[in-house]
Structure formats: structure tokens, C-alpha cells
Amino acid sequence: MLSIKAFALLTGMAAGGLVALAACEPSALEVSPEESIGALPLTATDPADNPRTPQKVELGKALFYDPVLSGTRQVACATCHHPKFGYADGLELPIGVGGEGQGSGRRFRAGANPVFTKRNAPTLLNVAFNGMDAHGSYLPTAAPMFFDLRAQSLEEQALLPITTFEEMRGPDIAPAAVVDSVLTRLRAIPAYQTAFRSAFGPADAISAVNLGKALAAYERTLLANNSPFDRYRRGDAAALSEAQKRGLVLFLQNGCNKCHKGPMFSDYETHVLGVGTNTKLAEADNGYRGTHAFRTPSLRNLTLTAPYMHNGQHPTLEDVMVFYDRIRDGERLDVNVPVGELDPLLQPRVTRSSDLIEFLRALTDDSFDKTVPAQVPSGLSVGGQLY
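Below the sequence we write its predicted C-alpha cells.
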């Protein structure tokens, strides 16, 4: 077993070569409280004003897959967050309004205005835990959402894609009018009338607030919290391979846990990494408040959600590692960000190996809900124009 003292030195970036973790017991990882990387909880916490019920979750799932929520009636939440792609979409940048097909086959229809969504679609798996700190604490009413932190809960996040032109709104409805237009459509569908009353009661059941609550309630069920790493941290020392244990040591030696900390492997802070703007965009993406900073993504379920980074231009985990090597070697990869303005947590180049990637693969749990409704109450194509 790796001693507490030795592990404390390891988390402190001690020099002196690779420390073997082959015999390390899971309890030995409890040394550095502020940089802990523990297992995810088995259940998610609901906000007090939006407790989950089966009726609410069922309604939220129907809405999630129903393109009636989009201005054009052709795009659903599931268009860009589909279980086939780990509740992401498999693209560098999502194609919302004007698109057809799925994954690498999705493209703009002939005659459509080809405006890509600004950033790579993050997975919704474990989004219920957004904001979780190193101690496993989080507030669902203050959960940071999006790469630029522009929403602070799932309830708030749920309505923003509906109002965004390139995601779900489209050209025919003004941003201020689109939610009311969607609510009018829902009120005209008897199945939704019944479902909203069952979930929320009869008083003004179909409302913008309840629309956000239903979608959020469903999204909090999208858990993938039984990865090999989770099992290892819960006490199964054999859950990680020897390569993955060595990779965990490298993860700590490289200082990855300075930003990718806590059970969600994210500090939920913004950092300037010089990632750059995707070349498909007409304008530079300046990130959080124009600072070129972006929120640290979770590392959970990476094997399901390529390509990577907010610009989606890194197809593999190996490519991500090369990016960090180049940045640490002093290359300027974003013309808008001088090297001197990069986050100081980007440490000098260190030795890496395939073991680190093996460890990252141990953060994937493939046992999440993959069921897709056979139909949605509007009668439109389930998930949008996917075929």
C-alpha cells in the first residue's frame, strides 16, 4: 500500500519518478481534501422547488425528444444530446436549425442558412452533479451550465437553447416570442395538457417555469456514476487495471487535478488555455465575458463523447495530450491569446504515457439510460430530423 506520506508528496508534484499504485488501496486517495477525486454519489439531489416525480420525469423525457419545442419544429433537445453519442452529438460543432441526419452524417439541408452552434455539445450525463466540489457538495439551484457559465441551474439552462437562433429557434420567431409560441403549441396538444396537469397540477400547468422544471427533472435522471473509477473509490481495489492505476499517478503528477478535481473532475471555474476558435465559425469565440476563458469540462465518460474541447477540434484523447504538450512548450495556438495570458495552472511539460489515457477511459460508465421514445405527443419525428 502507498503510504499516506508518500501519497501526499505525490499530490504535491514531488520529483523523483513514477510511484507504483499497483497495491494502493482506494482509501489512500483521501489525503488532499481540496484536490480529492472521489466517487460520484449514487443519487442526485433535486432543488426544493422541483422534486422529481415519475410523472414529471416522463413528461420531461417526452419534451426532450419532441421537436415541437423548436421554432421550425425540426430540432429537439435530443438532436444534439442523443444517447447514441453519450448525450452529446459526435460533431465538432452542433448543427441545430436547418440540419438533418445524425452524428458524422448530419449536415445542413439544401437552401438552409449554414450557421453552426457556437461550441461543442457537452454531454448531459451526470449534469445533475454540475458544480460539485471536491467534498461532493453542490447546490442544484446554483449549478454552473455552459462553457461560459451563462446559466446557473438545469431549470434555467433548459429554456436557453429554445431561444437561440442556431440551436432551436430558427429565423421565423423573435427571441422574446419563441417560448410563448412553444407554450401555445403545447396547450393545443391534449396529451401535453394531461401530462402537465399530472406533473404540476391544474393551475397554469403549461408554463415556461414548468417547461424548464420538467426538462430538468428528466435530465437529472441521466446518471453514469458506476465507472471503474467509481467502483475503485468505493472500495474495489481490482476495479482499475495496473495501467489505469499508473495513469492515476500520472494524472496527479501532471497536476491535472488542479482543475479537474472532485468527483466530477472539474473545478467549474473558467481558464484561459489558448484553445482557439473553431474554423467553421465566422467570428472569434471570446468565451466567458470576452476573456477567452472557458469552463473546465468534466472528464467523465470521455470515451463516449469525442471530439473534445469547447471548439471540438480534437478528435481523440491523444490529440488533446498533444495540444497540452504544445501549449506547455510555449506555442501560441490561439491568435487572440498571447502566451503570457495563459492560465498559470498550465504547468511545464511532464512525461506522459498511454497509461494516462487508460486512466481517463476508466471514468466511463456505459450503463446509463439509452431508451428513446417510440413517438412523442406532437406526432413529429422523435429527436428531430435525424434520418
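Confidence is low (pLDDT under 50) at residues 1-23, 25-31.
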